[in-house]
Amino acid sequence: MPRLLGVEIPADKRVEASLTYIYGIGFPTSRRILEQANIDPNIRAKDLTPQQINDIIHVITNNKIKIEGDLRREVQSNLKRLQAINCYRGIRHRKGLPV
Predict the structure, then answer these.
(1) CB atoms within 10 A of CB 74
(2) Cβ contact 37:59 at 8 Å
(3) What is the pLDDT of residue 29?
(4) For residue 45, how many other CB atoms are within 10 A of its CB?
(5) pLDDT at 92
(6) What's the pLDDT at 2?
(7) For the segment 48-83, what is each residue's pLDDT rounded down to a tens digit?
(8) In this structure, is the dihedral angle defined by the CA atoms of residues 39, 44, 47 and 48, taken in order, positive or negative?
């Protein structure tokens, strides 16, 4: 299994789909990353060369795409901030308020 930025991605899937196993990268972002790295999205992840893996990592870091730990921390801090100001969006029905 290839390892990108500390995450094991499935080797037998197309690289376009394999990148979505990284938290914070969806299908459109995966396509954009591969387009900028000039990599064919139809090749299998196990067929990536070390140079191609470096190109993918380079594109992710240069575009400052938040992934994995950084993104999880940001989401958690946003949730804690909203709870601190008593802004419970989406759970009004639990308080008995009209929806």
Answers:
(1) 12
(2) yes
(3) 92
(4) 23
(5) 55
(6) 76
(7) 899 999 999 999 899 888 888 888 898 888 888 888
(8) positive
62: left (phi over 0), alpha (psi -120 to 50) or beta: alpha
3-state SS of the chain?
CCEECCEECCCCCEHHHHHHHCCCCCHHHHHHHHHHCCCCCCCEHHHCCHHHHHHHHHHHHHCCCCCHHHHHHHHHHHHHHHHHCCCCCCCHHHHCCCC
Could you tell me how many residues make up the chain?
A: 99
pLDDT tens-digit map of 4-63: 888 888 889 999 999 899 898 999 999 999 999 999 989 998 888 999 999 999 998 998
- Four-residue CA torsion sign, 65, 36, 7, 25: positive
Cβ–Cβ contacts within 10 Å for residue 34, how many? 22
